[in-house]
Amino acid sequence: MRRRAEVAVVGAGAAGLVAARELLREGHTVSVFEKSGRVGGTWAYSPRADADPLGSDPGAPGAVHSSLYASLRTNLPRELMGFSGFPLAGRAFAGDPRTFPGHREVLAYLDAFAADSGVAPHVRLRAQVLRVRPLCPGRGQGEKWAVAWRGEDGDVAEEAFDAVVVCNGHCSVPLVPKIRGINKWRGKQMHSHNYRTPEPFQDQSVVVVGLGASGIDIAREISHVAKEVHISARYSEGRLGKIELYHNAWMHSEIECIQDDGQVRFAEGSSVAADTILYCTGYRYHFPFLDLDGFTVDDNRVGPLYKHVFPPKHAPNLCFVGLPYKSIIFQALELESKWVAAVLSGRAELPVEEDMTADVEEEYQRMEDAGKPKRHTHTLWPRWST
Ligand code: FAD
Fold this sequence. Notes:
Layout: E1 6-10, H1 14-25, E2 29-33, H2 103-116, E3 123-124, E4 128-134, E5 145-150, E6 156-161, E7 163-166, E8 188-191, E9 205-209, H3 213-223, E10 228-232, E11 241-242, E12 249-252, E13 255-258, E14 264-266, E15 271-272, E16 276-279, E17 296-298, E18 301-303, E19 318-320, H4 329-345, H5 353-369
Parallel strand pairs: 1-2, 1-7, 2-3, 7-19, 8-16, 9-10, 9-16, 10-12
Antiparallel strand pairs: 4-5, 5-6, 11-12, 13-14, 14-15, 17-18
Helix pairs in contact: 1-4
The chain binds flavin-adenine dinucleotide (FAD).
Region (Disordered): 365-386
Enzyme class: oxidoreductase
Protein name: Flavin-containing monooxygenase
């Protein structure tokens, strides 16, 4: 017989919405807690940025969740950014039918998905989860969880659930590299989490750190208004120097230090006087509401987690949807959600705790043998095992 669980889902971004749909389809009861006033998570663009341009305190009052910039278009085609049974492809939700639509189109899609899937009535808006704790630790399938949350009126309540699915996103808390001599830096520093438009960089000399999707987009956009753009990237060998096609952009290796004269010095030996260092260096996993023995975030490795989803000690009643990156994200979210829903109902089985732990340890060992840093644990591509 299928088990019907009462499940709390933390977050109503793409992950929380599809997790809720799959849980409902499987016959579970679902409450989705969302701290903001709407669904959509990252895709709810905010023209406002954090007061601190480095976004150092994610718990600061008024901290902004979304890291989108005004001009952002998807970096995956819309065919790969829908959920099964409710495609983003072949129709427009906010009047933007382009293959790589702008962020408003994705947000409108997620609004429509929440309504169409029947998830919307299960979402409690302005409900921030403050703490998630096991009620009867060590009881495996029978382990229950208490969720403490604060509502719009400021009151805090605690409710018990059979299971908690964590979908709080991981593109909100900036990862900022430590730079030798940064205390000598007199210019501005900011993280791409707080970048919105290029205008503030008019006539500036800007060092953009990082060459991921945001780094490339932002460097290109800023180059239209800035005096100079200097891109600093780890894997830049063979492409150092002036970038063809741009009259004002250069590629450098990693930042080595800030010199005594305040210039930015790069590992290849060149240095520049700049106005701003703009870090496009990614994000930190952050679970301020979880404090579990033996469960850590270490150099951006969340663990131990079996296949990025289940912590062996607390599986299946505590689980995570949405941790992997460098994947086809929406499809990965849906597959993880189907797995979680089926495991919670008993339709799918997990290995026993010892076997899941052994699997995680083997994966860590494979990464170590391949010389891969912990912070790449949740990258789905490239595979460590091949
Ligand atoms: P989020 O969208 O971050 O949602 C998490 C939700 O949890 C938020 O609504 C938040 O308010 C809520 N929450 C957090 N903490 C709590 C709490 N304590 N209590 C209650 N609620 C809480 N993906 C793509 O597929 N294609 C792209 O082109 C693409 N471009 C991107 C560009 C940028 C600049 C960034 C930053 C990300 C991009 N992504 C892209 C990745 C994007 O993050 C995922 O597509 C997806 O939106 C992640 O969904 P999520 O639900 O895991 O997280």
